[in-house]
Every structure is written in structure tokens, then in C-alpha cells.
Amino acid sequence: MSATPEPVILGRIEARKEGGRVAYVTINNPAKRNALAAEDRAKLAATMRELAQDPELRVAVITGAGDKSFIGGANIGQMSTFPNPDAAAEGSRMTHLACDSMRRMPVPVIARINGYCLGTGMEIAASCDLRVGSDNALFGMPEVRHGIPSGMEACLLPRLIGWGKTMELVFTGKMIDAAEAHRCGFLERLVAPDALDEAVEYWVEAIITAGPRAIRLQKALHADWERMAIADAVQRGIEAIGKAHMTDEPRRLMQAFLERRQKR
Predict the structure, then answer these.
(1) Domain assignments of the chain as residue spans, ordered by start
(2) Which of 65, 66, 190, 202 is nearest to 136 (CA)?
(3) Cα separation, 107 vs 102, whole angstroms
(4) Of the candidates 254, 256, 233, which has an alpha carbon nearest to the alpha carbon of residue 244?
(5) How many other β-carbons are positioned within 10 Å of the β-carbon of residue 137?
(6) Measured at the alpha carbon of residue 217, what is the angle toward residues 234 and 55, in degrees to the nearest 5?
(7) What order do you get walking across the sheet with 22-27 strand by strand?
(8) Which residues does the annotation mark as catalytic?
(9) Which residues contact 111 (CB under 8 A, 6 or more apart)?
(10) Which fold is adopted by the domain 212-262?
(11) Cβ–Cβ < 8 Å for 41, 79
(12) DSSP H or E run through 175
């Protein structure tokens, strides 16, 4: 890591860039399990949109401050005082904007999950490209216990963990531990709390070592795979490989690979 990180935005949503290529975004409200009020969710979305404008950015990491919580959900105190259905719908829209900002990032987004990952937190994590969790993390969609359904990016969960496990979470509101989240496919990696940073940096290093244009093309293809029929997605992949060869990046990286192999 760079010894002099570059600050971007401060407040309950903090962001910094290190080495000009890696962005670290932290939800800094540990006293309330890093719960997000509607204005926090709007600020998170704005932060991600600002970071997305940087052409040098290669990867982003999102986490929660402290070691107890990633994002403990939305701010229930605020939600309980919505004056009318329109205000409630607007709060839900802020959740969608925060999640959508992860999915629209032109580079991979890694969720560093260090504790409670509930409701809005699980939706935000589901909107990231890679998820690593500490073995003391807890996951759940408790909305029905508060009188509302799980909506917005909860719709991503069946693709990640299957319909059965999704229904269990959204109908019961109960939590699952990190081992179960890993078994059902929500977490790509499960590590001890003191190994969390090492696991994140392993992915970060691999991504920044890869071709930057290739990584951005791959992220765009990922979005195509989600929404296109297979035949259309295959064609889009062919086009993306052609676009990759519009610069010397493939030739340069392939030649470097061949040179390393010859030296073995």
C-alpha cells in the first residue's frame, strides 16, 4: 500500500485512493453497526460515481469501520418515521442507487465483509463483484421482521445463492453464519478476521497486475452476461476481444508471458 493515501471524500462515507489505482471506501458509523441512513446511501452512490470517473482506477474495495460490522442494514430509526409511502419509496430508491453504483463501476468492486452484513448491507455486498468475509461475519435479510419485504437488489440473491436459500433468508428474516454463506456461494472466500486484509490484497494485486483495459472490458462483459441471452452474450464477447486488440495491451502482455516462460 502507498504510505500517503489520497483522500477523496470524508464523513460517514470515507474514501481514499492509494497509488492512484486502488480505491478504498469505508462506511464509518461503527457505533450503529455501520447502518446507513438514506442520505448515507445517497452519498455512497455519489462517492462511487466520482471514483468511476478516474481513468487510472483499477479496483475498488468497500468495507465497514471497526471489526464488528460491514453494513448492519438501513437506519431503522429513520425508516420508522417515514411520513408517507412516497418517503419510504424514496428511501428504497437510495438503496438501489447505492447498489447500482457498485454494479456500474467500470472496474471490479471487492466487498471486505468484517461482521454484520444485513439487509441493505447484504444487497450492497451482492452488488459487488467479489466477496470475502471473516469467519465471525453474520448475514441476513431481516426486513420481514420489520414489516416490509426485501426488495431492490435482493433480487440478485437467487443468482448467487439459489432460490431455496434466498427464500429461507427473506421469509424467515433469520441470520446465517459466514461458513454457511460460503457454502451457499455468497462468499468467494472465508478467512479468519486477522487474514481479511491479506485476502483482499491478494485479489487487488492480481487485478492491478492484469491488463487495465482487459479488466474494464471484462467488467462490462459481466453486465452483458447477466442480462443477455447466451447467443447474444457470446457475440458480445467476440466483439470485446476485438476491442481489446485495438491497443497493444494484449500483444505486450502475451509477449511478456512468453518471455517469462522461455526463462524457466
Answers:
(1) 6-209, 212-262
(2) 190
(3) 9
(4) 254
(5) 28
(6) 165
(7) 6-9, 13-18, 22-27, 59-64, 109-113, 130-134, 189-191
(8) 123, 143
(9) 62, 63, 70, 124, 125, 128, 130, 131, 132
(10) Lyase 2-enoyl-coa Hydratase; Chain  A, domain 2 (1.10.12)
(11) no
(12) strand 175-177
Task: Please give the grid coordinates belonging to residue 167.
Answer: 427464500
How far apart are alpha carbons 26 and 217 in whole angstroms?
26
Is pTM, for the whole model, over 0.90? no
Pairing status of strand 22-27 against strand 13-18: antiparallel
Fold of 6-209: 2-enoyl-CoA Hydratase; Chain A, domain 1 (3.90.226)
- Calculate ∠ Cα 255-256-260, nearest 5°: 115
Write out the three cell numbers for 52. 468511476
Residue with cell string 447500482: 100
**pLDDT higher for 22 or 230?**
22
- Give per-residue pLDDT as tens, 124-147: 999 999 999 999 999 999 888 888
C-alpha cell at 140: 441476513
From CA 47, how far away is CA 43, in angstroms rounded? 6
- Please count the other Cβ atoms lying within 10 Å of the Cβ belonging to residue 64: 27
**Is 174 exposed, middle or buried, given 0-12, 13-18 or 19+ CB atoms closer than 10 A?**
exposed
Cβ 208 vs Cβ 22: under 8 Å: yes
What is the rounded average pLDDT for all residues in the chain?
Answer: 89
Nearest to 138 by CA among 197, 73, 77, 203: 73
What is the 8-class DSSP label of residue 36? B
User: pLDDT per residue over 238-254, tens digit each?
Assistant: 887 778 778 888 788 77
